[in-house]
Write a structure and sequence with these properties.
- By secondary structure, the protein is an alpha+beta fold.
- It folds into 2 domains: about 120 residues, Gcn5-related N-acetyltransferase (GNAT) (Aminopeptidase, 3-Layer(aba) Sandwich), CATH 3.40.630.30; about 150 residues, 3-Layer(aba) Sandwich (Aminopeptidase).
- It has 10 helices and 11 strands.
- It has an 11-stranded mixed sheet with strand order 1-2-3-4-11-5-10-9-8-7-6, with helices on both faces.
- Helix 4 packs across helix 10.
- The longest helix has 15 residues.
- The chain is elongated, with a radius of gyration of 22 Å.
């Protein structure tokens, strides 16, 4: 891919191929690509940053009949000194499908990563795309996690059911258990991708002072029964259309505790435009729906290691 020439055409292809599943964030992403394609200053900077910036600045395209009909982007990351690539935006124009173009582009992207001494290669794919999932498995990718994104509109008048579970501000004494739950729900294997630092939720004066300095107003609540902690919920604004809720619960936590926390957040954050929650796929689904949240998508996070995918790339 030549970003000076191809970026706008790749944006058009992505929009065409994913039109049925594009949400507001996806539409904004495509608009940013088009805007960047017209910004000479950005393109000149980006040309020097293709292997360091966490942006889709490099990759491979398939050109036929004088136009770009296929694409696979590569986004570089660093994790404790290790190089990682995320393969993204694998798209083929509908008139050119079932010819093996997606396979060739993905294999070429894999080979690029191994040539650059990547420690691992990653991609994510919707769980309702069995053809793509089968292709990636054939190329050596293995599922590591499933993550479901849920969204809801804040509603100050959403009815909260009565019961013996209370919602209180998160107390510092809850942090040890909350931290264990957060580590379970947000595994280290995906830490290279998520920019939000879970340690920013920890209590203490120094952390409070840091958040005050960077002007981040995090809100945290806990669901309790008596003195027993059942679950926690944190709200961390990041400036996007959807504001992030970060839930923490144990494998045996009561679903009702999470429901009540989410309802409380919808009521307490009624001045926000929309809220989002990411949670492991298949967990607490009824509890989240009961709080008025709608499933937006479930992504399979898949990883390839050099030993498992090099043979597939060579054949």
């Amino acid at each position: 891919m030549n970003m000076f020439r191809d970026l706008s055409a790749v944006a058009d292809l992505i929009e065409l191929c994913f039109s049925e599943t594009l949400d507001n964030d996806g539409q904004r992403y495509i608009a940013d690509m088009r805007r960047a394609s017209r910004d000479d200053g950005f393109l000149n900077w980006a040309a020097r940053m293709t292997d360091t910036a966490s942006l889709p600045l490099t990759g491979f395209v398939w050109e036929e009949d004088g136009r770009i009909v296929g694409n696979a982007s590569l986004i570089p990351f660093r994790d404790r000194g290790r190089r990682i690539y995320l393969i993204a935006n694998v798209a083929v124009h509908h008139e050119y499908r079932r010819r093996g173009i997606a396979r060739i582009l993905t294999r070429r992207a894999l080979q690029y990563g191994w040539d650059k001494k990547a420690s691992t290669m990653w991609l994510h794919v919707r769980d309702d795309n069995p053809g793509a999932i089968a292709l990636y498995r054939e190329l050596g990718f293995r599922e590591v996690a499933r993550r479901t994104t849920w969204t809801a509109k804040p509603d100050a008048h959403f009815e909260q059911e009565k019961g013996d579970i209370r919602i209180v501000p998160r107390h510092p004494r809850f942090w040890s258990l909350q931290k264990d739950w957060l580590r379970r729900l947000h595994p280290d294997s995906l830490g290279w991708y998520y920019r939000f630092n879970l340690n920013s939720l920890r209590p203490g004066f120094m952390n409070w002072l840091y958040l005050l300095f960077v002007d981040v107003n995090i809100k945290q609540w806990a669901a309790v029964r008596g003195d027993e902690l059942l679950a926690t919920l944190s709200w961390a604004p990041h400036g996007g259309r959807f504001e992030s809720l970060i839930a923490a619960a144990g494998e045996r936590s009561e679903p009702e505790a999470l429901t009540r926390l989410l309802v409380h957040a919808r009521r307490a954050l009624s001045n926000q435009s929309s809220l989002s929650l990411e949670y492991p796929g298949g967990e607490m689904m009824d509890a989240i729906r009961k709080a008025g949240f709608t499933e937006r998508r479930t992504l399979l996070w898949m990883r390839a290691e050099p030993a498992t995918s090099n043979a597939a790339v060579r054949t």
